[in-house]
Design goal:
The protein has 238 residues and is α+β, with helices and mostly antiparallel strands. The protein folds into two domains: 8-91; 96-122 and 156-237, Alpha-Beta Plaits. The chain has five helices and four strands; from the N terminus they run ααβαβαββα. It has a four-stranded antiparallel beta sheet, with helices on one face. A hairpin with a 2-residue loop joins β3 (186-199) and β4. α2 (96-105) packs across α5 (221-237).
């Protein structure tokens, strides 16, 4: 039996065209949706990156500020230390630089200093005196105690000096002790330790001395300049 189709070809083609157009629109919508989603994702990531960048910049700024503050504190600390050292030298009867210059100036030939340590200590208290027998002596003792209490604590300090050095033999050590003992700055110079060492068939003696800075020492500017000049000359000769 013959099947006859009475639908015009134009109608069939237009239907196919509509279906094709619909599929294209659907695909276009899907592509646009994908592009939109990608755009939104990129924007979200950009915002997250900007937020993280701002956070990092804020942290860097804080760290830089902390570093600047630390550097300022270090500069202030150095300035305070310099001022403190200057004040200490002004308050000391004999500046430490002059003591070092005197120790260097008295070095015999071939002797060198290895270390130097200055320690200030309170003098040992004397034994307690017997109680006074009458009121007059008690009053006099009280006045004397008050007068001694008014003395400056800094002036009552004793400056002990530990000296470490190296010499070719014990003769140079003895000569150094003799020179220091005759110095106007030092007193009670004593040998604490002396050991002989041999390195590469060369014998030398390492020694340790202990001395005390005299309290009643008053140096003029000329004395200080002479001591420092002598120390410089001895260093150049050495």
């Amino acid at each position: 039996m013959l099947n006859i189709n009475f639908v015009p070809d134009d109608y069939v083609q237009s239907g196919e065209s509509r279906r094709t157009n619909l599929m294209c629109l659907v695909l276009l919508a899907l592509v646009m949706a994908a592009l939109g989603g990608s755009f939104i994702t990129i924007k979200i990531r950009q915002r997250a990156c900007r937020a993280r960048e701002n956070l990092i910049n804020t942290r860097i700024a804080r760290i830089q500020k902390s570093i600047r503050q630390f550097e300022e504190l270090q500069m202030r600390r150095k300035a305070m230390m310099k001022t403190a050292l200057t004040i200490a030298e002004l308050l000391e009867s004999v500046p430490r630089s002059v003591v070092l210059a005197s120790l260097t100036n008295n070095l015999p030939g071939g002797v060198s200093l290895l270390n130097l340590n200055l320690i200030q200590k309170q003098p040992k208290k004397s034994r307690t005196a017997a109680p006074p027998t009458n009121k007059y002596k008690a009053a006099q003792g009280q006045k004397a105690a008050e007068a001694s209490a008014r003395l400056s604590e800094e002036k009552s300090l004793e400056t002990h000096i530990d000296i470490g050095g190296m010499a070719p033999s014990g003769l140079q050590v003895a000569a150094y002790i003799e020179r220091l003992s005759s110095s106007h700055l030092l007193a009670n110079v004593a040998l604490v330790e002396s050991k002989e060492y041999t390195i590469d068939e060369t014998t030398f003696r390492q020694f340790k001395l202990r001395a005390m800075l005299r309290k009643e020492v008053h140096l003029t500017a000329d004395d200080v300049e002479a001591i420092r000049t002598g120390a410089e000359e001895s260093v150049y000769k050495f």
